[in-house]
């Protein structure tokens, strides 16, 4: 009987499922939207049951599209955003919304309600901070738990299970309370490289001494791709699969993308994964720990056993370009057609003005804080060089220079990584940005790196399918699954003629960071 794999990717706005064969070829794909509750205070929540329903619908549709029989799917795994799911002691939903609706039981990864709590974590100067870049982010789990305990004490009292979203999905699928080494190491201050991986003194120092009473956490995490058991009968029925299917320990979505694009490479410390969509995440792996200020990690065994991973990124990239469109009087709703129309006009303007287009317009893209390399969630965006021009062309110029700033932000992260032992010269880009020709060009020209774009598939789903293949026993290990299923890509090399222009822009970019800090110090 043929053996196929199911990979599920839960992003910020949708759940996607793919059916792949053992060579990594994508045979069928489907997507269903997921809801998000945005409150007036800026909080963002998901309904985990609605997410599961969307997952089940996507899996059923993807299998039908692939024309594969249910009992031919032998492995399934999940990736998801690093959102935090709150459940009661009997598994019931626990609200994390100030509006009190019980269905909103999941704090979305991008929710920054816990800024103050993140600062409190950083102020402890605890050893665990050495493995999150020295600064706690409000996007990590600990500050979110602090916030709920402090502001929603009744919800905290009812909480008996806490999950990263990927772990919640493997729990729904298999019934297992195991947690992935990827999720716990990257977001829960779990030190996978140490015998005593949890540090209760850290949680006590931030007022969470009782966390383990509310979380149902294991002493040891399960490596990504570990076999957590078969699908339960109920889950199999909901997903349209069978209990023949094994469930693999999952990963955070960006880590799945890293597996999919660089997981099978031998000289891995020359390569960096750039998973770019609403936000951007960069991931570099090495055989020894390479700590860098403002870079998350190094994380041991997340996602590949025996390797250390450093993670950086930008909190708003695709979301920032959408914001620029909405913000400008000529913009309107940032649909795919709007982006296409702006991009086409930029190409026309560049044919006239070249790379000097809007050369005195400069942007710092930290509109939602600076994730890396400054690790400052309080950082603000800056635009320098505005005029009274309110035409469509002025929108195009601002969009272009914002795209330049996003690419320069990646160069800023690269400089931090390469100053700490990496020799990265190749970027493997996946996500929505591959559909933006401006960004793909800029990632090569503004960083000086070769940019590789995946061909013929979806690297995030591929990375998750690799975990499923490991769990199903199609390969002896996750590392061998990565090597056996990896897909080729198309390389774009930087344009040497653009180097001088973007070197100058980068000097301005760095100086603007310095000047913003000086202004903040005065204020």
UniProtKB/TrEMBL annotation:
GO-annotated molecular function: D-ribulokinase activity
Domain Carbohydrate kinase FGGY C-terminal: 272-472
Residue ranges of domain Carbohydrate kinase FGGY N-terminal in the record: 4-260
Transmembrane segments: none
Entry keyword set: Kinase, Transferase
Keyword flag Zinc-finger: no
Pfam family, one: FGGY_C
Annotated GO CC locations: cytoplasm
Gene3D superfamilies in the record: 1.20.58.2240, 3.30.420.40
A Gene Ontology biological process term: pentose metabolic process
Family in the record: Belongs to the FGGY kinase family.
The protein's name: FGGY-family pentulose kinase
Taxonomic placement: Bacteria, Pseudomonadati, Pseudomonadota, Alphaproteobacteria, Hyphomicrobiales
């Amino acid at each position: 009987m043929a053996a196929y794999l199911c990979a599920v990717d839960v992003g910020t706005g949708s759940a996607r499922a793919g059916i792949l064969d053992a060579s990594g070829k994508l045979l069928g794909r489907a997507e269903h939207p997921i809801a998000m509750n945005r409150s007036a205070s800026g909080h963002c929540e998901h309904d985990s049951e609605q997410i599961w329903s969307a997952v089940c619908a996507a899996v059923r549709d993807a299998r039908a599209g692939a024309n594969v029989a249910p009992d031919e799917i032998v492995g399934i795994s999940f990736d998801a955003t690093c959102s935090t799911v709150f459940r009661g002691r009997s598994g019931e939903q626990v609200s994390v919304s100030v509006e009190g609706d019980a269905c909103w039981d999941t704090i979305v990864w991008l929710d920054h309600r816990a800024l103050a709590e993140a600062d409190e974590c950083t102020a402890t100067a605890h050893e665990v901070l050495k493995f999150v870049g020295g600064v706690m982010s409000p996007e990590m789990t600990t500050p979110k738990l602090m916030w709920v305990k402090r502001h929603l004490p009744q919800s905290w009292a009812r909480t008996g299970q806490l999950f990263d979203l990927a772990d919640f999905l493997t729990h729904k699928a298999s019934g297992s309370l195991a947690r992935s080494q990827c999720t716990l190491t990257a977001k829960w201050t779990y030190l996978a490289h140490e015998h005593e991986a949890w540090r209760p003194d850290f949680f006590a120092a931030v007022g969470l001494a009782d966390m383990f009473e509310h979380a149902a956490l294991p002493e040891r995490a399960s490596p990504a791709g570990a076999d957590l058991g078969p699908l339960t009968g109920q889950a199999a029925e909901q997903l349209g699969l069978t209990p023949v299917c094994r469930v693999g320990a999952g990963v955070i979505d960006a880590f799945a993308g890293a597996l999919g694009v660089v997981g099978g490479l031998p000289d891995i410390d020359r390569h960096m994964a750039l998973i770019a969509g609403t936000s951007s995440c960069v991931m570099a792996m090495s055989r020894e720990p390479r700590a860098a200020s403002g870079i998350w990690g190094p994380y041991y065994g997340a996602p590949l056993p025996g390797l250390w991973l450093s993670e950086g990124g930008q909190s708003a990239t695709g979301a920032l370009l959408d914001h620029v469109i909405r913000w400008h009087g000529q913009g309107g709703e940032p649909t795919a057609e709007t982006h296409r129309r702006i991009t086409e006009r930029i190409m026309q303007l560049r044919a006239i003005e070249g790379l000097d287009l809007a050369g005195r317009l400069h942007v710092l893209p930290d509109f939602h804080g600076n994730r890396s390399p400054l690790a400052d969630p309080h950082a603000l965006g800056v635009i320098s060089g505005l005029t009274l021009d309110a035409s469509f062309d002025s929108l195009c110029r601002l969009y272009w220079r914002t795209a330049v700033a996003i690419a320069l932000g990646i160069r800023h992260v690269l400089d931090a990584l390469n100053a700490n032992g990496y020799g990265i010269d190749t970027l493997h880009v996946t996500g929505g940005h591959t559909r933006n020709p401006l960004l793909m060009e800029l990632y090569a020209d503004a960083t000086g790196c070769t940019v590789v774009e995946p061909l013929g598939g979806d690297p995030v789903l591929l990375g998750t399918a690799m975990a499923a293949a490991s769990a199903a026993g199609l390969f002896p290990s996750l590392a061998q699954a990565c090597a056996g299923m990896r897909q080729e890509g198309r390389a774009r090399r930087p344009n040497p003629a653009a180097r001088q222009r973007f070197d100058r822009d980068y000097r301005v970019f760095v100086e603007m960071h310095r000047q913003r800090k000086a202004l903040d110090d005065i204020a």
